[in-house]
Structure formats: structure tokens, C-alpha cells
Amino acid sequence: MRTTEQRVSTLEHVLEEFIIHTDTALNRLEREMEDFKDEMKVFKDEMSDFKDEMKVFKDEMSDFKDEMKVFKDEMSDFKDEMKVFKDEMSDFKDEMKVFKDEMSDFKDEMKVFKDEMSDFKDRMENSHKEMNKQWAALAKKMGTLDEDLVSPAVRPIINKYFGCDPIKKSIRELVRKDGESFEVDVLAVCEDKVFMIEVRATPRVNYVDEILEKADLFKKFYPEYEDKEVIPIFASITFPDNIVQYATKKGLYVMAYKEWEYMDIINFDEVSKKQH
Predict the structure, then answer these.
(1) Closest-CA residue to 253 (of 182, 201, 197)
(2) Is the overall model pTM greater than 0.90, yes or no?
(3) Checking DSSP bridges between strand 229-235 and strand 253-258, what pairing results, if any?
(4) Considering the chain, what is the average pLDDT of its residues?
(5) Mean of pLDDT values over 197-226
(6) CA 177 to centroid of chain Cα atoms
(7) In sequence order, which residues have a C-beta less than 8 Å from that of residue 89 and are 6 or more positions away?
(8) How many CB atoms lie within 10 A of CB 82?
């Protein structure tokens, strides 16, 4: 009997322990289930966010694909335009080559033309010089040097070297006074100067002194020019060097053909320096 009671007591104790452990295990299981539910909820929320992100990603990928398609189309158009441009550049290069060839031919033609013009100019200058020689020889022979050669050159020469424009010009100006005659081959008058130009067909050294002496008498026969500076000039076709040097030394301007091109004062700078 006592043994049975002990056994019953032991069983009750074991059962009680089992129940306690079972309750504990169930409580722990319940807590774990709650935790699991919470984790599943978090997981579901995360999955929902992931789905949303995936949707956004898919939309962005779709937009990217559309943009890539547009880009590919634009690249295709660009390639076509580049092909057209290359073709145009190729045509342009061909045209430039033709242009360069034409320019080269044109330059060659221009060189030939310039050479021909240079030859023509040389011939014309030689012809002009020869004509001047013949004209001078004819004027010398006919005794018309003053009107045919000297007089036409007086106005531009006076304007060039003396800075004045003649208000009067005459050829073979002759005056008589007290029974004496005074003739000037070419007379040119400016506001403050009067030019006595003496023309000789064949220059000689003694003519230099004669012209200067004549200039000293000028105002005696032309008192109306008393307030003007008298500038004598010795004119001819050509002058030997010794006569030019002597005239320069005496301060007399010499007017002649310069290299058979035009009439000019050939010692202006030298005489001007002596007078200043």
C-alpha cells in the first residue's frame, strides 16, 4: 500500500513536472511563433518594397530601352549624315583639286602675261625715249626748243620744286627800254617768284655766266616784278657733266631731259643746298 502511494506520488510529481515543462515549451513556442509572425510581416513588407522597387526598375529599364532606341536611331541618322558629309567632302576635295589646277594654270598664264607686259613696257619706254630723242632733235633743228619742249614742262616743274602755280607764262618775252632790248625765252610768274628760263640748243660753259648776268638785269627791264624773287634756269635737251657741275657751283638751276623720259631740274638739290 505504501509502495503504491509512493508510486502515485512519484507519478504525480513527474506529471506535474511534465505539465510545467510542457507549459514552458508551449509558451516559448508561442513566443517564437509571434516572433516568426513579426519577421514574416517584416519580410512581406520588404518584399512589397522590393516589388515596388522592381516595378520602378522595370519602368526605368523600359525608359532606358526607349532612350537607347532613340539614341540608336539618332546614331543611324548621324552615320547617314556623316556618309553624306564624307561624300560631299570628297566632292569638295575633287573640286579643290580642279580649282588648284586651274589656279596653277592661271598663275602660269599671269606670269606669261606679266613677262609680256614687262617686255611691252620696256619696248614702250624705249620707244618713248627714242621718240623724245627724235622730237628733241627735230625741235633743235627747227629752233623750237622753247615752245615745243621747255614751255610745256615749266608749269609742272615749278609746281613740283618751288610749290607755286604760275599765274602767267609767256614765250620769247621781249621788252625794250632806253634803246635796249631784253628777251626771255620762257617767262613764268608766281605770286612771289618770277622764273627766267633761258633755252640753248647747244649748252656751253660761258652761257652759265651770261644767264646769271642777264638775271641781274631782269628787274631793270621788268620793274613791275621788283617785289618778286628772280629765279634763273638754264634749259636745254642734254648737258655735259662739266657744264652741270659749273652751273651748280654758280648756283644756277639746270633743266634737261632726264634719261630721255621727261624734262626735269637735274641739279635742284645741290643748288638748293648752296643757297640755304
Answers:
(1) 197
(2) no
(3) parallel
(4) 81
(5) 95
(6) 66
(7) none
(8) 11
H or E element that contains 96: helix 2-142
Please say if the pLDDT value at position 274 is more than 80.
no
In three-state secondary structure terms, 63 is helix
User: Quick one: pLDDT band at residue 118, thresholds 50, 70, 90?
Assistant: low
- Find cell 613740283 and name the residue: 160
Q: Do 183 and 221 meet the contact criterion of CB atoms below 8 Å apart?
A: no
Hey, is 167 helix, strand or coil? coil
Indicate left, alpha or beta for 251 from its phi (over 0: left) and psi (-120 to 50: alpha): left
Neighbours of 49 (CB within 10 A): 10
pLDDT bin (cut points 50, 70, 90) of residue 117 is low
Q: For Cα atoms 157, 159, 160, give the angle at the middle one, nearest 5 degrees.
A: 65
Q: How confident is the model at residue 121 (pLDDT cuts 50, 70, 90)?
A: low
Q: Among all chains, which residue has been given the C-alpha cell 655735259? A: 240
Half-sphere exposure of 25 (CA within 13 A, CB side): 6
Residue 173 contacts by C-beta under 8 Å, 6 or more apart in sequence? 183, 184, 187
